[in-house]
TrEMBL record, chain A:
It comes from Sitophilus oryzae (Rice weevil). One of its GO terms (biological process) is GPI anchor biosynthetic process. This is GPI-anchor transamidase. It holds the Pfam family Peptidase_C13. Keywords: GPI-anchor biosynthesis, Signal.
Automatic annotation (TrEMBL), chain B:
PANTHER family: GPI TRANSAMIDASE COMPONENT PIG-T, GPI TRANSAMIDASE COMPONENT PIG-T-RELATED. The gene is LOC115884093. It holds the Pfam family Gpi16. It comes from Sitophilus oryzae (Rice weevil). Keywords: Membrane, Transmembrane, Transmembrane helix. This is GPI transamidase component PIG-T.
UniProtKB/TrEMBL annotation, chain C:
The chain crosses the membrane at residues 105-123, 160-182, 202-227, 239-256, 301-320, 371-392, 398-421. This is Uncharacterized protein LOC115883419 isoform X1. Signal peptide: none annotated. It comes from Sitophilus oryzae. The keyword Membrane applies. One of its GO terms (biological process) is attachment of GPI anchor to protein. Pfam families: PIG-U (PF06728). Belongs to the PIGU family. It is a multi-pass membrane protein. InterPro entries: PIG-U. Keywords: Endoplasmic reticulum, GPI-anchor biosynthesis, Membrane, Transmembrane, Transmembrane helix. GO terms for cellular component: GPI-anchor transamidase complex. PANTHER family: GPI TRANSAMIDASE COMPONENT PIG-U, PHOSPHATIDYLINOSITOL GLYCAN ANCHOR BIOSYNTHESIS CLASS U PROTEIN. It comes from the Eukaryota.
Amino acid sequence: MFLYNYSILASLPLLILPGIVCVQLEPTFVENAKKGHTNNWAVLVDTSRFWFNYRHVANVLSIYRSVKRLGIPDSQIILMIADDMACNSRNPRPATVFNNANQHINVYGDDVEVDYRGYEVTVENFVRLLTGRLPPGTPRSKQLLSDEGSNVLIYLTGHGGDGFLKFQDSEEITSQEMADALEQMWQKQRYHEVFFMIDTCQAASMYERFYSPNILAVGSSMVGEDSLSHHVDPAIGVYIIDRYTYYALEFLENVNPESKRTLGEFLKVCPKSACISTVGVRTDLFLRDPDKVPVTDFFGSVRPVKLLSSIRMDTEFNFTDSPLRNNVESESKPNKYRYVPPLNKFSQNSV
Amino acid sequence: MSTFYIPLVFSGTQVIKEIRKWVYRELSEKNRFYDDSILITMKIVLILCFLVKIQLVLCYGNDTFTEELLIKPLFSDQVYAHFQFAVTWDKDPTIKKYHHTHLFPRALGEIIERHNIHELHISLTGGLWRYESWGYPVVDAAPGAEVWAWFKPDTVDIDQNWKLLANTLSGLLCSSFNFIDVSNSISPEFSFRPRGSTDWTTVNSTWLRYASLPREIVCTENLTPFKKLLPCDSKLGLASLLNSGFIHNTKYHSIALHLRPICRTETCESVSLELQLSVSLVYDYAILGTRNWSFKKLFGQGLEGKCPLSSRSNIYVDLSTSDSKKFDLTPTPDEVVTSIRGGFVNKYALYHISPNFLSISGRYEDDNEIFVKKPPSLYANQYLIGYGQERGGIVSKIYNNHWSALEVVLLQSIAWYVPVYLHTLKIVSNGEILKPTILKYIPGKQRERPYYIEMVLNLPPLSETLISVDFDYIFLKWQEYPPDANHGFYIGSAVVSSYLPLAKNFTGLPQDSSTIYSSFNASRSGYLVQVRTENMVITLPTPDFSMPYNVICLTCTVVALAFGPLHNITTKRLILKKKCETTLVQKLKLKFETIRKQLVKSKSD
Amino acid sequence: MKMSTLSSKHAKKKENTYFLQSCSKVVLLLCLAAFLRYLVMSSKYQTIIANHFEISTPICSWKRVQEGLFLLSRNIDPYDGDLLHETPTALIFYKIMSQNVFRDVSLMFIFFDIGTALLLYAATRHYAKQFHQEHRDRTKYPKDVHEYLPSEGYYEKVPLYVLVAFLFNPYTFLGCVGYSTAGIHNFFLALFVFGMVYGSPIVSSLALAICSSVSFYPLILLSPLYIYYSQVYKSKTKALLVVLYFLTYVYLITFYNNSLSKSFKFINNVYGSIWTVPDLQPNIGLFWYFFTEVFDHFRELFIHSFQINATILYLVPLSIKFSNRPFILTIALLFLITIFKSYPCLSDLGFVLSFLPNFLHLYAFCQQGVIVGVILFMTSCLAPTLWHLWIYSASANANFYFGVTLAYAIAQIFLVTDILFAQTKWEFTLKHGREAKIDGEDADLSLE
């Protein structure tokens, strides 16, 4: 008992810390409260399988790296990757994915956590993830636990066409299904604002049907246009990143959690001369002026701090029920444990 | 300013009491949807716990943590590195609360509690362990993912718990364990008996579930959460050597997690919970570029010091190949341990990890010699026979190089999409038909249950035994094929278990210990090996995935072709009708006439 | 008076010699057929033939029966898995037959095939005689239709033709050589036809009950059986008795099945799998590709409608239309089952095709004989070729084989509808004469 008290005592100074931290963060916090979002989530999806679609994995991992760098923790990023590129036997450098032929940045990193991978990346799982209608027993890392205060970044990349996006070359999600999923999210108060970003051919067709409020959408190409890849890495042998994501990433690399760059600037990255396709933007559902919204509203993260006016103290707390107490108690047991031989000895007679 | 409430209004002992209550309440909540602030608090408490480590160890009982690394240059052109981490937790198994852990990962504690688990064994492996040239590993693992768990006998719905456990594990280790359900799980009778100590009077295999996912790819995303289960994470100690770029650049890499109760004392009056975490790597000299290995070459960096929480931090280098092929170690080992085990003498160079920087390297005196391979006593292969996509066969080949007969258990779990015919089972050993001592078989069911074959064989000395069984290629519904249907479907590896009388090429740990150190001089009556064979891929015939509408239309047309005439025959009568041969022109004329007549009529109206 | 007895004696003598002659012919044919079968069975081609999906479907594959017998011998419930689709009684029957009665499995299959041929011969002989008798009085018919009536040697020719059509039909031949248990099912179907034609309620109802217990499709043959007794033998009580017998036998067989397997698991394995088509192995029927490709949420709907189509959809209308010709009704229903059942095999078609010589008199009214013959020939050649291209050399895909099965089904449909049309036209012609004239003017026959 004494020891236990000691441990709590030792932890006391740090228990007070959140209060201090909170006081220090005060100005930003009030700002955030005005903006109305209290937490950030990111759903990053690569829908393409097969080695020659390396670039799509590089796309999604680039965005993953950026949002992680800007402060969204892994627990609030849902990463869906339809195929394994890093440990693919065709990858000359295992456990790496590069988004540049210079191989400066390994976007796969040393601490990546992929939540949905391989065959798990299906339209059904994606829609279930967004709408929260997951089967019982789904682990937390595979759930989008956003609420009415969440700013959600949805990034999709893969092969698409007019009004659909292919998943793993075997099924597709239509723009209507996408719009309905977002509407369901809105009705279930699963987001505060959504930044929908898609890098695929005819990307603009995917957000055309949206009808839920507070969505800002950007697509790499207009209807009728192809989205193009940026460059090939001769060492890997395939195209390694798409143009739009390449330039978006170039922009994001110069953003840090404190910077004041706005979404308005972000929406202007990759002009037609660089992208070859026209970047499509849809702002009519979004209530704020993108020029006044910091990029970090979607790509960064609000610290998970909440104002509490009082702490409810449960005075009737029953200490006898404490698991720790139980742990300390140890009864003397008769000798009944034993090792079971891991393999039986069998009789020799044949059956 | 802020109205954030800090319990500073209290003072002295009151503060401690109140905080304790508060923390308590949060900790004991079943459904943990913490307030965000509490999350931070929790984290800070954990950091604090880390800072005041030793004192805290005492207040949670005697948790111990050991970290070890075994480096073994193999007889072939590879070097084997095995990291062995073990956490033991002196926990009374009668108390079913696992929330309060210290060195033991709490995430796992919660899983044990929620799913009523007695033992849990997981491995995630890339590549295949080549028994015939590498000998036996410390821990056997099948290519891909493999899980087996013993549930406590009082578990209510084991199948349901197993499914949920698999789901939870998929979140814990970022793997696709969620594809495990009853349709690919079996309860083997002999092969996977409990490894730890139990108080059960009888062992009932209905409490066991085993499943393997041969297709599973293992990469950094599995290693990241795995490292988080270690008390020092990957920041200090041997775990800091686990750099993904160097781990996945190997011929074989396997991460494994083995959880079991072990005897706390010799007399086994009480049990502790033991968690073994291991990483096995086999580096190929061809990939390294040289036979001279070093920490920098193998792991990309040297060792900065031990994990301060560990009670044993050792590195061993197996010197068994040094006799035939001499290599020098720098720095010189702290001591050289001689281990006599199962009739074989082996020498190990031992290094105690100090806080100083350490980088061990092995240097061969002369570079281009060929080793003499010593194949182990027992190893096995598995392959497919037949051509085309109609009928085939699965053949397992077991080699017994031992001079006496060996009793082995062969376990095959064959997915439901590979229906096998047991009456075609043939066991031929050195050209003679061998009868199994025991044969267990549960036929599979489409979409419900795999085929399970387990047999006990008494292999004659110095023999090569072929076990073959025929199967049919099956046709699935088009929506059941994976997106890359033409890649093929996997059949998991067979497991050949046996007690070897001699510890030749054997590095495994004895059942009653959890460290490599305790395996030195640990002679026992038998040495358990569980040889895993290759995975197999079969390409099932595929339908045309773009055809559904066409097929539905065409087939329905054929059905309608029968319906039309039969409807006519049965509902109509034959009658004679006057011939009125009207040509097209006549018909048109007739029509024109009627229209004209109508027009005239309307005009007259 | 004397003359008549003499002539009748003479006729009898003549008949006897005929009978002896035909008997020797039959024996010769049977021996030849058995020998040919045995020859192929003992060659290396046996396994190749047996492995073909056209011959061994999941329902009638001997390999699965062997697996069941093996599991039974090891005390494993064969109905625990889903490979076996035979009933427990059938399994015991095969066990006794293959282990106690016949040492050689090939002999068992030959025996049952020869048995089927004999039963068919006897049944058609009896039926042809009846038919001949019925149309003997030529004065009842217009003069110009005499050529459509059965000729003098009709009842001698037809059964012999049937025998040849059965024994030397490539479909039945391959089925027998490939150890298709459908050949043994056909034996009981032939027994049913034999019992029905000879008017033996016990034999016919027992045979039908056995057939229906193996797969539920023959259940619908109860209708022609009932009609046969009530129309041909003009006895309602006999007809009702047959139904009663049938129900009793079915009950007894089910009871016995259940007591053998000690659980009702076999119901799902036997009838469940025939009804719901879980095994999508290609065969010559219409089900496999359809249910491979159909969207999951429509599966139930289509399964039930396809099975209804194969069983009761045509039962009532055909029974009403052909209530005076129950034999033709039986053949038509057998044909429709063969076309639309979930796992048809070549033996099934071979069996029904061997009834065709019974419709010799309709030949003049058939219009699609050539088309049907050509399609059947083409599909029989193409199916194994395209199968090989798809499965072994991977240079074709499932669509090719599916196309062949479609054509094959169409040929059978044309054949059965053609015969039924011909039958109605034949009846019409016998009644109204050959000349299609109304008031001396040319007229057309049409359905209205």
